[in-house]
Design goal:
The protein has twelve helices and no strands. It folds into two domains: 83 residues, no CATH class; 174 residues, no CATH class. It has 257 residues and is mainly alpha-helical.
């Protein structure tokens, strides 16, 4: 029996990337099942999957004493590759290439303004939160501000600027909290803000930005609005990744040195 277990472990370690793909697939399947069956779609499956991933990362880090979470466990080493910066940035770029720029015209000038306003305000709010927690350097404040935009923009900005792993992780956590809040709050405030047609859905997606949060919130409000909100939210992510390490960082350096 021991020999069989060792042989199995050796095979899993050898094909660690396949193990990582299977693990992520299982987590996604379970998370979306929980979302549909227990929350009726109000808490999006992607948010639940991220929470599960964070818990597993914590357990892996505590068990091994390492710095890479679950990837420090030999059998799950492929998670470090699958969740690395290369594949993450590739996913972002491929998503951006799938968007037709002409579609943004449907929302008119207000939709474009909402994109830029949403990104800038999110960075400002995130930077204020970072400043309140004692961060004073432009790199950290810009990275945390990016996290307030989305949990993708934060790590991308941090990687580009050379922020520490702890700051990048904090920016990710800030973005995750925002995504969950948007999911929960959207159906509650939809009626009062007139979120009942494609145009307002696109403007809402441009202001909020977090694709998973907007998608989950609109799905709980009116599933027909999801494609419109998700489209501008995708633009928002790309815009944040462009502006964070460049224009916004330059402004932050002018202010904080």
């Amino acid at each position: 029996m021991h020999a069989i277990l060792e042989l199995t472990r050796g095979i899993l370690i050898k094909y660690d990337l396949i193990v990582a793909l299977a693990l992520v697939g299982a987590i996604m399947w379970i998370s979306y099942w929980i979302s549909n069956q227990l929350t009726r779609g109000r808490l999006h499956g992607s948010a639940i999957a991220i929470l599960v991933g964070l818990v597993l990362a914590f357990i892996g880090g505590r068990a091994t004493g390492g710095e890479n979470g679950l990837a420090d466990v030999a059998v799950f080493a492929g998670v470090g590759v699958l969740g690395g910066t290369m594949l993450r940035d590739f996913a972002i770029i491929s998503t951006a290439f799938g968007v037709d720029v002409r579609e943004i015209r449907r929302a008119g000038p207000v939709g474009v303004i909402s994109l830029f306003l949403g990104v800038v305000v999110s960075f400002i709010v995130g930077a204020c939160v970072g400043y309140g927690f004692g961060y004073r350097d432009a790199v950290s404040l810009t990275t945390i501000g990016g996290g307030a935009a989305t949990y993708i923009v934060g790590p991308v900005t941090g990687s580009a600027l050379g922020a520490t792993k702890s700051v990048q992780t904090l920016s990710f956590a800030v973005g995750l909290v925002k995504a969950i809040l948007v999911m929960i709050a959207t159906p509650l405030i939809a009626k009062s803000i007139g979120l009942n047609n494609p145009r307002t859905a696109m403007i809402f997606g441009g202001l909020m930005g977090t694709t998973s949060g907007v998608t989950g919130g609109l799905a709980a409000t009116d599933a027909r609005l999801v494609p419109y909100g998700a489209m501008t939210a995708t633009f928002y992510t790309g815009l944040g990744c462009l502006m964070g390490p460049s224009i916004i960082f330059i402004v932050m350096r002018m202010i904080f040195g």
